[in-house]
Design a protein that fits this description.
This protein has helices spanning 13-19, 29-34, 44-50, 64-77, 127-134, 153-159, 166-169, 236-248, 291-300, 311-314, 325-334, 352-361, 391-403, 416-421, 426-435, 447-450; strands spanning 24-26, 57-60, 81-84, 101-104, 111-115, 118-121, 139-141, 180-184, 192-196, 212-222, 226-233, 254-260, 280-287, 304-309, 338-340, 343-344, 365-366, 368-374, 377-382, 385-387, 407-408. By secondary structure, the protein is an alpha+beta fold. Mean pLDDT is 95; it is low at 1-7.
């Protein structure tokens, strides 16, 4: 396969917009620049690399037919196209490296139908909006990022990997967590393809490099009455072992187990009354029916419950907005020099490697854990806060983790394979060759395509 470049020259953007007829377009440079960005600046490496990258035109279709019309215009003019949801990603997934069209899918936000355990939605539907429709029927989305209130389902599937709920349901890539997709291609005559079952992995977490998602069938989980609890511990490793045990306690229904070493709790301004100085904190979302056995487990580990809200007072997982990538957001609001890592520690009920890293790096790499289910086992994923000094030192920290068996999903690159996958996905690459022969979809993000991997 020889990839074709997507370089575009001398495009008359007024004429291009005219080709789109009544489809909403945005030409205002300030708005275009705003809609060309995400939270890439969490990384000092990406901030330097991506600060000057913007699209030329934003298009906001309302139907799949309008998406097809945009696709035809882009192919005819050889114009790059970058798909965007709410822009809540952290790795520059939605930032156009070669300009062109930003395809904003937030106006395609319908929940088309809901069945027991399953929903059909458009890509621009916000996760919280989906739940508002499904919860009265006893169901909710299985997992969500900390940007739950604003993130779209299409953006989450294309750029995310897991989140609040992953302690029960694993990660988005796990079989059963995505049932079907409809995608629009960028062939000479664009078309709609439906992918079902394992075929969805050709597009899942591909940064929009090989298909414009226009519809999704997603599984739902039981909508328990969720309570929010803060537990504090004098010792970080005790807090971590408590989190490991809670995640493995099958009789206690957990949705979030988030552990924060001091001084991270000091960055949570709105929670300070529940976060004593010098103590590690565990932020929890559990079924309200499980509060009593949870209390017994807290007592066993010597922790203290400092805050508790029942389901009626929790208001859509407000505590979740201090976890996952929101932890980094709150910390950077206090100290903008901080950055972060994404680490998956190997399964080990004794947490030996985690303990080694905690003591080795001290406050240079501050421990923040999110527990999740991996192949049936509960493991800690680290979203550690890093006191950034130089790119070279950041690389040293990453290598130190990897050399000892931790997996780093590098958040300091916008290249698909160099972040979480660490390998060329042959299935995704082959699918791109089929549906995007001119390499117009989010160019510069898929290393396998740029290198012409066979």
């Amino acid at each position: 396969m020889t990839p074709q470049t997507s370089t575009h020259t001398a495009i008359n953007w007024d004429a291009f917009a005219t080709e789109l007829g009544d489809i909403e377009t945005i030409r205002d440079p300030i708005q275009v620049a705003k809609l060309s960005k995400d939270y890439y600046y969490f990384s000092p490496i990406l901030k330097t690399a991506l600060d000057d990258k913007t699209g030329d035109l934003v298009v906001r279709p309302k139907t799949e037919a309008e998406v097809l019309q945009v696709a035809r215009a882009c192919v005819a003019n050889r114009v790059p196209l970058t798909v965007r949801g709410a822009g809540t990603g952290n790795y520059g997934q939605a930032i156009p490296l070669e300009g062109g069209v930003i395809l904003d899918l937030t106006a395609m936000n319908a929940v088309k139908w809901v069945k027991p355990g399953l929903a059909c939605v458009e890509p621009g539907a916000r996760l919280a909006a989906i739940d508002r429709i499904t919860r009265p029927q006893g169901w909710e989305i299985r997992m969500a990022p900390s940007t739950y209130r604003t993130a779209t389902i299409g953006g989450f599937i294309a750029g995310g990997s897991g989140g609040i709920g992953s302690v029960r349901y694993g990660q988005l890539r796990d079989r059963g967590n995505l049932h079907a997709l409809r995608v629009v291609t960028l062939e000479d005559e664009p078309r709609v393809i439906e992918l079902r079952g394992d075929a969805v992995q050709q597009v899942n977490h591909a940064y929009g490099t090989n298909g414009i998602i226009t519809e999704l069938e997603i599984p739902l989980g039981a909508a328990y009455p969720w309570a929010e609890v803060i537990v504090t511990f004098e010792d970080f490793m005790t807090a971590s072992r408590f989190g490991q045990r809670l995640g493995s306690s099958d009789g206690i229904i957990s949705k979030l187990i988030s552990v924060h070493a001091w001084p991270i709790p000091s960055y949570f301004a709105a929670l300070q009354t529940a976060l004593p100085a010098e103590q590690s904190a565990v932020l929890l979302i559990v079924s309200e029916s499980c509060l009593e056995p949870l209390g017994e487990l807290v007592k066993e580990f010597g922790g203290t419950i400092t805050a508790e809200k029942g389901a009626a007072d929790s208001k859509g997982s407000a505590l979740g907005e201090f976890t996952w990538n929101h932890t980094t957001l709150h910390a950077r609001n206090v100290d903008p020099s901080l950055t972060y890592l994404q680490t998956l520690f190997p399964y080990d009920p004794e947490l030996k490697l985690l303990e080694e890293m905690y003591h080795h790096f001290g406050n240079e790499v501050m421990m923040h854990l999110e527990f999740l289910r991996v192949q049936g086992n509960i493991v800690p994923a680290g979203l550690q806060l890093v006191r950034f000094s130089t790119p070279e030192r950041l690389d040293e920290i990453i290598r130190y983790h990897e050399d000892r068996g931790a997996f780093i999903a590098n958040p300091h690159t916008c290249i698909l394979e160099d972040g979480g996958r660490k390998r060329v996905d042959r299935g995704q690459l082959a699918f791109k060759a089929k549906v995007d022969p001119y390499g117009l979809m989010n160019p510069g993000k898929m290393r396998g395509w740029m290198e012409g991997s066979e």
